[in-house]
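Attaching the record inline, Q. Sequence:
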Amino acid sequence: MTSVRGLLVLALLAFLLAFVARLPARWLPKLLPPGVVCIEPAGTFWNGACANLEAGGLRAGAARWSLRPARLLTGRLAAQVRFAQPLATLEGEFAPVPGGTLEARALRGTLAHAPGGLLPGVPGDLEGRVGLALDELVVRDRVVRAIAGRIEVQDLRQRTGEGPLELGSYELLFEGGPPQASGNLPGRLRDTGGPLEVAGTLTLTPAPGYLLDGSVATRPSASPILVRQIAFLGSPDANGRRSFSQEATF
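Structure, as predicted:
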């Protein structure tokens, strides 16, 4: 009797998996939570795509996904997802967790930030390229709870009335591990070349927001305009470096 019951369970499981594998993606919009919109769904629930995916008013762009069968056996839903916009791509494994938590692994992305603004909160007169390589990212209630990996900003420049102002390239490194007792997650900030020598810390806070502290010095390649702007930070120390600090909430 036990063996027969086991066979029935396996047969039912196989049927459900086959049903889900063939479930049309056009049924997906009815299953999504409020605020998430899949425009022009195609393919299947198992392997599908949206011409555009919107979440919370943010337009993520074209999306393509493939569910991870092995993760389903652990009772967790996870999928390999790729988002694409004309100036940005993002790919990784995403796993929603009950209670409003989103876990992501092996996130890789590129973004060209053009004048006029593409990233919210970033001045529209800035342009450059952003590279994302995160091994882990956990977000709950809009607060980053865990992060490990690297974010790079290359060839950053500012549009001014006197032409483009070169600002250099930078790297932000999060080494992972548990957050501090305050819930803060510190990241190490440094320049990777350009007219400014920068070293500091960017700390993600549970506000949600960030704390930025560091020091900066100009290199001989810095333009006179940039030298004047840095001088507003105050008098330099014995090594010619000026301190800066900034705090903000999202």
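Helices lie at 2-22, 28-31, 69-72, 224-231. Residues 2-22 form the longest helix (21 residues).

More tomorrow.
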